[in-house]
Amino acid sequence: MQNILENLQQVHNQISSSCTSSGRDVSTVKLLCVSKTKPEQMIKEAYAAGERYFGESYALEAAQKIESLKSQGFNDIIWHFIGPIQSNKTKHIAAHFDVVESLDRIKIAQRLSDQRPDDLPPLKVMIQVNISHEDQKQGCDEHEVEELIKATSVLPKLEVIGLMGVARIDADKDELEQSFNSLKALRDRLSATYPNLTELSMGMTQDLDEAIACGSTEVRIGSAIFGAREYHK
């Protein structure tokens, strides 16, 4: 049985320690609790511990959880979609999420904007960049980011707020720092033209320290909070 409260305390302690080492204010780094494949009860436990930011990767499963939790009064959770986006799932994502971190194609941006319900505020989006340069990884190349932001910024129901990247899982410290610093440099350069581009979602359990040192504003942590992922047939 996972002790989610203890796990969260350990994660926050690590974030705090990393911020201290990097000379950063801990308030500048947000924890996104990655709750994909996890039951509602675990989300409620993290919520009771004070967490309000949760990340999901499976649109249909997430939509059901979000609707259920909202019906129980959990209305102040900020839901982030962090997985690959299939065209046939954009309607669910547009209707249920507050933030999408994995946008990498203008076709998907157009669908999300078109399908965002009129009674909801603009959907906040981050552009996912393939900072590890792996063919199997989601995300656009660095040279494609500015064009995608330019095209997305004119869509009426989307607001571009930052960049997201996933480093290579077996990268060493030097490679991690190179990947994360390149994403920060790209964000810094583009924010001169797009001032709302403030977020940098980078860093997970295994590379949290390097990500924070390189300027991450959000770390995505799942298994260190909730335990190993659970896949249901």
Structural features, described:
There is one protein chain. This protein has 233 residues and is an alpha/beta fold. Helix content is 42%, strand content 18%. It has nine helices and eight strands. Strands 7-6-5-4-3-2-1-8 form an eight-stranded parallel sheet. The longest helix is centred in the first third of the chain and has 19 residues, at 4-22. The protein is globular.
Distance from N terminus to C terminus (CA atoms, Å) equals: 22 Å
Q: What is the β-strand count? A: 8
Helix amount, in percent? 40-55%
Shape: globular
Alpha-beta content class:
alpha/beta
What's the rounded overall pLDDT mean?
A: 95
Stretches where pLDDT is under 50 for at least 5 consecutive residues are none
Which sheet architecture does the biggest sheet show? 8 strands, parallel
Using only C-alpha atoms, the radius of gyration works out to 17 Å
Q: What is the beta-strand fraction? A: 15-25%
